[in-house]
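Standup notes
- DV: blocked on the single-chain target, sequence here:
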Amino acid sequence: MRTARSVTGSATPTLATQLHAVEARGLALLGDVGETTAAVDAAMRSFDAARPDREPVWLGYDTHTELFGELGQGLFATSAASTGPPE
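- DV (later): unblocked, structure below
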């Protein structure tokens, strides 16, 4: 789960965004709200630093919509982990 932190220096900003978002989701499933929030913040910073014209073509699908969808799933998992599943 620490993949995002270990490769961020060598990853493009868009790839780092995706890795941080996956990390946030995993941490959320573990119920670690503080680390989830840190990973979400890192994903947002990486996304803001991205320059689409300098990213590989295969990362072109990574838009605000994709990012917010991924982060939303993670944040929902944080809520479910702390309150239990919806009834």
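- Follow-up: The chain has a mean pLDDT of 78.
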